[in-house]
Amino acid sequence: MTGAGNPIVDLDRDAIKKALSEGSVLLVDVREPHEYAAGHIPGAISHPLSAFDPSSLPQGKRIVFSCAAGVRSVRAIEFAQVAGLDLREHYKGGFKDWALAGEPIE
Fold it and tell me: pLDDT tens across 10-26, in order?
């Protein structure tokens, strides 16, 4: 499915909550700045897909992409893989799943 041939790993809300509580991931929100400003998952950093630059992603961290519903996060993975980065994890449900479940929002 991806150009680089690395399978995309879909993570669910429980996996994201566990990883965030352990501090083992950096959640990268690829929604647009106005979407991020309106509400985001606590601890997520903003890295909009419209201005996506894989080389500016933090190094040495387990990066998981997130967007509104799991479409743009897959595109971010594809962009990162084309740039030679070994990234493949995303929050499949995205912010909509998080918010609908009543999870905390910043």
Answer: 999 999 999 999 999 99
